């Protein structure tokens, strides 16, 4: 928050002969934090944290989350570009947003915002969060909807005639690199999509179905195969456990395997599958794991310990389950965030 205030102070002192180079990556929404203040309305850091936590636990998409964050900020939603003017701005951007929507990456500090006060307020209503967020945040959103507060910056704002935004790293680029590596390792590799979204535990069953089909019939690619996808799923939190969307996906994949059979009753097609889901930044949710791996061997280790998959899934406690059976993927920070990657191996 102190750094964001310094950035705004510095930006407002630049002249028209200056070129400002802005480096933006995933996590910018949290790292560049300047809670809304003005026109008689104010939001504290603690209040904005409560709003963000409620949104992230609701199942809202990152675009929906950021539409609210932008409207509760003095620096997001193009407002940094406004502060930098009349200097020229070049923003170099690493995308952690599915589809690479520039106005959603780091909540678009140098990009026109397509969302409005009404869009942000609708997100709160859609996920029934009125009682979960501070009244100060609701007052700001309602005042904006009533036309009492200026909206985030739109494309016609003159600040953007001085601004250029360039994508220098995306999820799709990472998938192509993964495919190249898989081919070099001898796999028939296929990139499915870089726009994977939805509930993590449902997406896991999608991958399980694809893997079983590939193992049994060689479709959409024949073994040895490596099927790669990327994007960002969501988790609707109902329990009190610890984990992240990638760990939840791996746990749901294991549960899907279990329902096919265990030990000698497991089909051969299921035994041939190994699944990985991980965050490219090396951090999945509020944990030290990048994600997790699921396979018949991991499942066997879990069942040998008597671990109850249904109970852990119901409690959103993927981290502790996977830590006990060796499924966690621990890479440490990579310092680059371009969403998540899923890798499905069919031997």
Descriptive report:
By secondary structure, this protein is α/β, with parallel strands linked by helices. It has two domains: 168 residues, Rossmann fold (3-Layer(aba) Sandwich); 176 residues, MOFRL domain (glycerate kinase, domain 1), CATH 3.40.1480.10. It is 39% helix and 16% strand. The protein has 14 helices and eleven strands. Strands 6-7-11-8-9-10 form a six-stranded mixed sheet, with helices on both faces. Strands 1-4-5 form a three-stranded parallel sheet. Strands 2-3 form a two-stranded antiparallel sheet. The termini are far apart. 48% of the residues are buried.
SSE ordering: HEHEEHHHEHHEHEHEHHEEHHHEE
Gap between N and C termini, in Å? 49 Å
Task: Please summarize the sheet with the most strands.
Answer: 6 strands, mixed
- Tally of DSSP helical segments: 14
CA-atom Rg in angstroms: 22 Å
CATH class of the largest domain: Alpha Beta
Mean pLDDT: 96
Instruction: Determine the strand fraction and express it as a percent band.
Output: 15-25%
Features:
glycerate kinase, domain 1, alpha/beta, single chain, 347 residues, 6-stranded mixed beta sheet, 14 helices, 3-stranded parallel beta sheet, 2 domains
């Amino acid at each position: 928050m102190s750094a964001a205030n310094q950035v705004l102070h510095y930006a407002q002192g630049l002249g028209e002969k200056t070129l400002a180079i802005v480096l933006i990556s995933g996590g910018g929404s949290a790292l560049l934090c300047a809670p809304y203040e003005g026109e008689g309305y104010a939001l504290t850091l603690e209040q904005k944290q409560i709003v963000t936590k409620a949104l992230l636990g609701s199942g809202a998409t990152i675009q929906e989350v950021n539409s609210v964050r932008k409207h509760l900020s003095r620096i997001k939603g193009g407002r940094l570009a406004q502060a930098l003017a009349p200097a020229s701005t070049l923003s170099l951007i690493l995308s952690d947003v599915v589809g690479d929507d520039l106005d959603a990456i780091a909540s678009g500090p140098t990009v026109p915002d397509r969302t409005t006060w009404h869009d942000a307020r609708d997100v709160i209503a859609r996920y029934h969060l009125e009682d979960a967020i501070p009244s100060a945040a609701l007052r700001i959103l309602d005042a904006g909807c009533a036309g009492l507060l200026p909206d985030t910056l739109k494309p016609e704002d003159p600040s953007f005639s001085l601004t250029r935004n360039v994508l220098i790293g995306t999820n799709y680029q990472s998938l192509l690199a993964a495919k190249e590596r898989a081919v070099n390792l001898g796999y028939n590799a296929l990139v499915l999509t870089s726009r994977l979204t939805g509930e993590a535990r449902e997406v896991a069953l999608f991958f399980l179905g694809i893997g079983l089909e590939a193992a049994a019939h060689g479709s959409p690619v024949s073994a040895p195969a490596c099927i790669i996808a990327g994007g960002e799923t969501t988790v609707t939190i109902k329990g009190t456990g610890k984990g992240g969307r990638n760990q939840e996906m791996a746990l749901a994949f294991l549960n899907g395997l279990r329902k096919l059979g265990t030990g000698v009753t497991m089909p051969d097609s299921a035994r041939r599958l190994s699944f990985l889901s991980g965050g490219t930044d090396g951090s999945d949710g509020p944990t030290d794991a990048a994600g997790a791996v699921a396979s018949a061997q991991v499942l066997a280790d879990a069942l040998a310990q008597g671990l109850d998959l249904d109970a852990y899934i119901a409690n959103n406690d993927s981290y502790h389950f996977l830590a006990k059976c060796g499924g966690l993927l621990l890479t440490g920070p990579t310092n680059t965030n371009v969403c998540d990657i899923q890798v499905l191996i069919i031997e």
